[in-house]
Design goal:
235 residues; two-stranded antiparallel ribbon; 75% helix
């Protein structure tokens, strides 16, 4: 249920964003993207540090450093080899040409990455599947509504298609959680969320136009913690 609410919020917000796009000057659009980038970096960094740092007997400690670095390196190498960013962009551009749609590549890719990557998408879907608790996804839907409206006002109707990515991604996690609730270690979901939040920080940097990062090519990094903990469970 939580994912369906999330999908509906993105669709409605995207339509509203396109409607109001004509009244949004380019200067304001750029300012909004800059502020969104700053906010995304700040929020994602906070979510990451919440899991990364802990206090033990009055001493500040970190956790999962090596796993996070290895996940990012291996995942990015794999993503660059597959060229996920290029395939996503070309696929969206082909849809534009085939159906004579306005440019949607940037909106689709940006929306998919923002709405699918991060602790709220993963943890919310798992909570919805295991405990039938949609609270986290409903909160995420509210955030995504605002984000989708702004993205659509900047990038256009392409943002609405990211709702399909959310449906497949979060829906799959929820279904897996429902049927494998007894086999998903807390450490695994936490590690995935930490890697996901680093990817969100990279997206924020893109929004601020500080550097162009092919975040889509980093997506396989989310799979490395899963493989790592599955191996630990087997041995």
């Amino acid at each position: 249920m939580g994912t369906l609410i999330n999908v509906g919020a993105i669709i409605v917000a995207s339509i509203l964003g396109v409607i109001f796009k004509k009244g949004l000057p380019e200067k304001i659009q750029k300012s909004i993207m800059l502020v969104m980038g700053i906010g995304l970096v700040a929020l994602s960094l906070g979510w990451f540090l919440k899991d990364f740092l802990s206090i033990d007997n009055g001493t500040l400690k970190t956790s999962r450093e090596l796993l996070i670095i290895i996940s990012l390196v291996i995942g990015t190498l794999l993503g660059e080899w597959i060229d996920i960013d290029g395939k996503l962009s070309r696929g969206a551009e082909n849809i534009e040409k085939k159906y004579n749609l306005p440019p949607l590549a940037k909106g689709f890719v940006a929306g998919t990455l923002i709405f699918c990557v991060g602790s709220m998408a993963i943890m919310g879907s798992i909570s919805d599947g295991i405990y039938q608790d949609s609270t986290t996804l409903i909160i995420k839907s509210t955030l995504d509504f605002v984000t989708a409206m702004i993205l659509a006002s900047v990038f256009g109707i392409g943002v609405i298609f990211s709702a399909v990515s959310v449906l497949i991604y979060q829906g799959s996690i929820t279904l897996i959680a429902m049927f494998a609730s007894d086999f998903i270690p807390t450490d695994m979901s936490t590690a995935i969320s930490m890697v996901g939040n680093i990817l969100l920080i990279a997206i924020g940097i893109n929004f601020m136009e500080l550097r162009k990062i092919k975040v889509a090519n980093m997506l396989p990094s989310l799979l490395v913690p899963i493989i790592y903990y599955l191996v630990l469970m087997l041995f």
